Amino acid sequence: MKTPVISATGLWTPPHSISNAELVESYNQWADNWNLEREADIASGAIEPKTHSSVEFIEKASGIKSRYVINKSGVLDPDIMAPRIAERPNDKISVLAEIAVNAARQALDRAGRKPEDIDAVICAASNMQRAYPAMAIEVQEALGCSGFAFDMNVACSSATFGIQTAADFVRSGSARSVLMVNPEICSGHLNFTDRDSHFIFGDVATAVLVEDKDFAPAEHWNILGTKLKTSFSNNIRNNFGFLNRAAPEGIDAPDKLFKQEGRKVFKEVVPMVAEMINTHMDELGLDKDGLRRMWLHQANANMNRLISSRVLGREASDDESPTVLDTYANTSSAGSIIAFHKHSDDFKAGDKGLICSFGAGYSAGTVFVEKSA
Ligand code: COA
């Protein structure tokens, strides 16, 4: 049986960033316009006015200070409140595949790998641009990889599910080198007119190269163990799909965009994930004191604080549980991979860490890694 390892990661960050102040200003303008248009109904008490969003709330409740987006002007225009990303003709690569290729090229460069050595591509992300052909096959074509490619979606847990899938392919001999990409255009499924969630997400793309240890570069990450879990919940939903494409779009059909019961998610997911990490650590014979760092899913800073304290038995330092939420916001499946990519260069041989993701489904995944000699 082959031994899978992580050879390298890649990250592509969009050029535009939106601060909380900019986002709140456009939301508040949109809300004022909405109220003005319904002045009579609001005055008669028939409908409730929209209330303002606030920078202070966003930062305190989530830890988010800004987010990167592919299109800034549409998101911030109170008459649009959505990204405006031009449709591309069929002979051009899709935006989702393009940003995945950007992240993938960095991972290949860092591993010193040629595209023709890759024999499987997995596109693991929350929101695919279309049903088919698969974005993963576009990535395969654009890079010039051989073998097979497919898309998979496990919402915010897509990357850890993708890593386990890739590792299983390597272990079984189905593939020697698997490129797993997480292009996330979260701004496309976020309702920027929903005060409760308009601040949550950002756009990004990450890539992880999972390979047979005998083929991988000398410097790599041993995969000590992977574990996946799902448990049904309605608390995070997005009902958009091809069976309801005739439904009105945007603010009139908010359930066709991201929707959540944030409080319930917080309360239910924290214990589920902490228990999962602790159980997996026990199964692998690992000790919390031997865990150098946790690269947790980046949804909410308070959530990560609680999860890490349930694992360590005390509050984790920024070094032990780094955040990228402040600059990237929640980037769905890519969050824990951005944290891993940006905060792992200081690891020495034998240092151990945990990549962990969780989200809609509910779903959660843990990947324990160790820096190679
Ligand atoms: N600006 C100002 N006030 C706001 C606001 C905004 N943008 N959004 C909500 N509020 C208000 C609410 O109206 C509420 O006011 P009230 O107490 O007068 O009723 C108050 O702030 C608290 O709202 P609540 O929704 O309970 O906030 P919260 O502390 O639960 O934080 C989240 C909201 C979304 C940040 C938090 O619940 C969260 O991150 N949950 C986990 C989400 C998650 O991980 N999802 C996975 C996605 S992949």
Q: In order across it, which strands form the biggest sheet? A: 5-4-6-7-1-8-13-12-11
Q: Which H/E pattern describes the elements?
A: EEHHHEHHEHEHEEEEEHEHHHEE
Main sheet record: 9 strands, mixed
Name of the CATH class of the domain at 222-371:
Alpha Beta
Mean pLDDT value: 96
Give the DSSP E fraction (strand runs of 2 or more residues). 15-25%
Which fold name corresponds to the CATH topology of the domain at 222-371? Peroxisomal Thiolase, Chain A, domain 1
For the record, the CATH architecture of the domain at 222-371 stands as 3-Layer(aba) Sandwich
* Low-pLDDT residue spans: none
* Helix content class: 25-40%
Which overall shape is indicated by the principal axes computed on the Cα atoms?
globular
Radius of gyration: 21 Å
Bound molecules: coenzyme A
* Oligomeric state, counting identical vs distinct chains: single chain
- Secondary-structure content class: alpha+beta
CATH homology group of the domain at 222-371: Thiolase/Chalcone synthase
Structural summary, described in words:
This protein is of the alpha+beta class. It has helices spanning 20-37, 39-43, 55-62, 72-76, 95-111, 135-143, 158-172, 262-283, 301-312, 325-328, 335-342; strands at residues 4-12, 16-19, 66-69, 120-124, 148-152, 177-185, 203-212, 221-230, 236-237, 259-260, 291-296, 352-359, 363-371. The protein has a domain at 222-371: Thiolase/Chalcone synthase (Peroxisomal Thiolase, Chain A, domain 1). The chain is 33% helix and 22% strand. Helix 8 (262-283) packs parallel to helix 9 (301-312). It is globular, with a radius of gyration of 21 Å. Residues 53-54, 57-58, 61-62, 156, 195-196, 236, 260, 262-263, 265-266, 299-300, 303, 330, 359-360 line the site of coenzyme A (COA). Residues 53-54, 57-58, 61-62, 156, 195-196, 236, 260, 262-263, 265-266, 299-300, 303, 330, 359-360 line the site of coenzyme A. It comes from Hyphomonas beringensis. One of its GO terms (biological process) is secondary metabolite biosynthetic process. Residues 150-230 form the Beta-ketoacyl-[acyl-carrier-protein] synthase III N-terminal domain.
